[in-house]
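Input:
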Amino acid sequence: MTETPAFPSRLLRGYTAFRDQRLPQESARYRILAETGQRPRTMIIGCCDSRAAPETIFDAAPGELFVIRNVANLVPPYDPDGEYHGTSAAIEFGVMGLKVRYILVMGHGRCGGVQAYIASRDAGPNAPEEPSAFIGKWISLVAPAEQLVCESPEDAAGRQRALEFASIRQGIENLRTFPSIRNLEEIGEIELHGAWFDISTGELHILDQATGRFEVAKG
Amino acid sequence: MTETPAFPSRLLRGYTAFRDQRLPQESARYRILAETGQRPRTMIIGCCDSRAAPETIFDAAPGELFVIRNVANLVPPYDPDGEYHGTSAAIEFGVMGLKVRYILVMGHGRCGGVQAYIASRDAGPNAPEEPSAFIGKWISLVAPAEQLVCESPEDAAGRQRALEFASIRQGIENLRTFPSIRNLEEIGEIELHGAWFDISTGELHILDQATGRFEVAKG
Amino acid sequence: MTETPAFPSRLLRGYTAFRDQRLPQESARYRILAETGQRPRTMIIGCCDSRAAPETIFDAAPGELFVIRNVANLVPPYDPDGEYHGTSAAIEFGVMGLKVRYILVMGHGRCGGVQAYIASRDAGPNAPEEPSAFIGKWISLVAPAEQLVCESPEDAAGRQRALEFASIRQGIENLRTFPSIRNLEEIGEIELHGAWFDISTGELHILDQATGRFEVAKG
Amino acid sequence: MTETPAFPSRLLRGYTAFRDQRLPQESARYRILAETGQRPRTMIIGCCDSRAAPETIFDAAPGELFVIRNVANLVPPYDPDGEYHGTSAAIEFGVMGLKVRYILVMGHGRCGGVQAYIASRDAGPNAPEEPSAFIGKWISLVAPAEQLVCESPEDAAGRQRALEFASIRQGIENLRTFPSIRNLEEIGEIELHGAWFDISTGELHILDQATGRFEVAKG
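Output:
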């Protein structure tokens, strides 16, 4: 590649809008949180999906949310010798370094990662070679969630959603395989939560951990 | 812990504000992007830091940004057999599945991950045992960036910023170790960019890949 | 002194009671908070007085309260070059290191420190030489609080209490002279509170910062 | 911040529990000690750490312990013109005003203050500027204790504990630089003691001043 490309104009326009409109109202927050360090009370493990941005959905101010985003908002089980260090390192940073109080595993509808898992599962061994070097392995983390599916709808869309729900339940279970998290939850110093965002309607569904069901958020 | 905790009230209030104010203006976007699928043109690899949310800084609408967030916005080098699958899987998903046109490696000032790398590097062998099971290994990905430091300021804050800059340059180099990305960039189908957000002033510094310098965004 | 004294038997008995009765119920908290580090959400600046122990009065579990205790629960004004580093260092440690959310200045009735200040003030310049090398200087920190006295009771006991109240108000004002605290309070990340414990009745009086009055705690 | 925040609910609940359960059993103690004044026989110089509350560990009743708490339970050397008046004033108040018989310097494991001292010592001149205005100076009081380290363990945790022990020895030495304390100890009117609390196991280690060793408390 010879000449270097200009910075994407859409991003530049977006930044200018931020700088001229929102920044003036929050410049104090930015300056102060730069000087004193961030102190978020909530960590969110969300999906990279462009339609499910936690700061947008929770109308968050700078400094409020420590956000990990990977494909399908997956939480690997605790495995210090394992292959999923990126997400586990971020979880550890939030729990030990930032001492967050709340951890939210946040899924969403029509998740491409969950869809890819279902496709490869259904295609089975005769499937055409997966051209992927990484995705296939990563989404295999969804598999254990199959055990936690509660609903059994007729249609494929419903079945995918049931697995999206189950994967959030599984993510919370996996968080509990981290000794520090399990221990801090045991003494009431950390709370684990689950939620699912319906990207087509904007509804937020909250996991009721007593019933295992997801209920539409009131309020 | 026996009884299940209520959903954090701050998050619920934030969601209600989103649902009552922003959602009505963007419900069409959400509905249509749910039906047709997301088609973001930009992938951002950013940091989990609560003060550096890409959607906020780029004033992004739902569907515009595919966002990966890990500690210190690191891009692992291409390594199909390696240990950093989470981020690599998301990069692959964005490039192959979503066909993004722009990839932005976005760092920020006073990054706790870079700071932790510097501290462990300087502490050396006498350092107290790192109680971390994951962070230490993850931030070791910063090390190669030391070669790409351009500035040599007097003070520690300046030295950290110089390494934050270098780590962005390294991230872009690492993106080019992915065969698909290198090839697509070569034929002008993908552009790689770097930026650094000053969390104390809200200034965006853009990497000029011709000079290797970061310049404050005009516009 | 020749032979070394045995450890005070009263303390030993007290520890044995703790070890045999309370520790078994809280051993998990101790072990977990040792492994993960403390994460108190409240910092209390209290008096050394033996009748006003914060953990007792707030029935606190291990790990809940970060507690500074000095004579008359005084908060020195911010003065990096000044002489009161002990308390200021502890305040800084709680705010910056532990990221506490609440700071409570807690006074109490019949405070010997406030009493000593009043005695030396009333004795005036003709007072017999204060034999104290430190106390006189330390309690001089009470003086500015005279401006914040609201009540004007007849009797000496009432006047001392009014000054104890005022000294708590002054302590909160002095906390606001710490740039980090003033800033974090401004953006709602830290709350400052005041309370006064009546050691003769066990009543807790809470400062209503809207009216400046102390009201008996309900609940 | 405009509106005044409500008193933290956790503290209010804790006070209510104290008022309804413990206070009724000790109301006589509180009333009498209010009328006659406090007469604690023991002064404890402890750490602000939320996991090392003296009243809890010694199961103390109201009026028993006069408690000074600062970061790392440090005793400054006698220095009437010096900068550490807060702690020295409290020591003087306890010895001269309250006529305590026992002075206990009480340390604990995994002390953040001692850890901060070690970190800054090891980081050396290359260390990032200490953003602290007070902590750095305060913990420099730990330095002389390096001379009194007896153990030389392999691991960092053990080395920190050895320094925590030494700092307690140093604190007792510093108490003896106060003329009144040195004199009163000489004629057997005051006893100086040291102890170290293991926050992970709840074990109390008592300093044997004949051997200089810390032994687990029996009894």
